[in-house]
Structure formats: C-alpha cells, structure tokens
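Researcher: Structure for this, please.
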Amino acid sequence: MSDPLRPADTRSPLTQGGAAPEPARAREGSPLLTGVLTGLLLAALWTLLVYFVHQPVSLAGWGVGGLIGIALAKAAPAPRRELGTLAALLTVGTVVLAKVLILAFALRPIVTDEFVRNRTATTLLYVMDMRRHRTFSPPLQAALDEQERRHADTTRTLLGVESVFELSGRVFAEARARDSQATRSERERLVETYSDSIFAREGFLPMLGRLFGFWDAVWLLFGVSSAWKLAQSGPG
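Model: Predicted structure, token format:
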C-alpha cells in the first residue's frame, strides 16, 4: 500500500532505468551528415567558381577546411577530439571530389573557350585539320602532295628550302582565311574535336594528378589544420 504523504515519482518513464542518454545518442550521426553535406556543397561551388574564372583557385582548399570545421563544431552536441579527425578527412575528400568535378565538367569548356578566343591557336588547329583532311585549295594541295613526294631530295637544296617556306606561308594564309570565315560554333567544334582526343589519350587519372600542384598541397594542409582545430572548438 502506497504512502499518501510520499510525493509521487514524477520522472518520465523515458528517464527511468538509465534511458536518459538516448537523445544524445540519437544525435551522434548529425556531425557526420552535416560534414558530408557541407563538403558536397563546397565541392560544387568550387567547381562553378573555377568554371567562371578559368583559374584553379587553389586557395579554396583552405576555405573548405575552415567551413567544414565550423559546420562540424556547430552540429556536435559537445566538443570532442575525434571531430577534428573527421573534419580533416572530410576536407581531403572534399578537395579530391572538387578536382574530380572540375576535370569532369569544367576543364573541357574552359579549354575550349580559351582556345576559341586565341585566334593564333585556332589558326594552328585549322592548319592541322586541313592537312589531315587535305582540304586546302586544289593548287596548294597539289603543291603539298608534290612536296611530300620529293621531300627527301628537295630539302637538301636552297631551292627546296625556299619552296618549303613559300608553301608554309601559303598554308598559314589559307588556314587564317578559313579561321576568319568560321563562326564561333565552328571553331568550338574544331577545338572540341582535338581536345577530346587529347583528353582520351592522356587518361582521366593522370590528368587528375596534374590538377594537384604545389599550391594545392600547401592550401590543403592549411585547410586540414583549420578543420582539425575548428571542429574541436564546440558549438558557439
């Protein structure tokens, strides 16, 4: 029989039997989820920035680390040392992901735009393309074919050297004229044709490795350090 004078136990059933830490445990995954989402967003923003400015923006690696560290510190219920390690790993992963996205989606348009705006480069590409497809004017194409047939003999004489220079001038003149008459879309298609062959020949992983230069490594180290320190600072 209960004592009517004894105050009733007002504790919630959820707090009896040692179940109080359950809400805290439920929040254990939030720093990781927050860090992953922050890293994905930052990688996408870095790719867009590179696309618009046509520069690698290596300094962004430091900013990525700082923002990931702050995001984890805000999401964690209390400061913990392991958050620093998590932030550092997420920073490295975000930088690598950003470089992959830049190579996959931004580098080709950047190369195409830079070449199209450089008329000397497009003229040289037209020289290559017209030689490959033999699309010079009939008289010049016939002279080039004759030069190839007699190359071993004519290049040994002064007359042969003069002929080579004369033909080279005509080749560049016709290529320059073709370039001047071409529309921007035609130049873009020409550049993309040759840039795609270069990308295919080089391979994805070797080109990805070339995107990591000295300054990328320096700013990544700063980013990892910042992420490690800031993630352990706790919410505030």
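Researcher: Any notable elements?
Model: The chain has a mean pLDDT of 86. The two ends are 51 Å apart (CA to CA).
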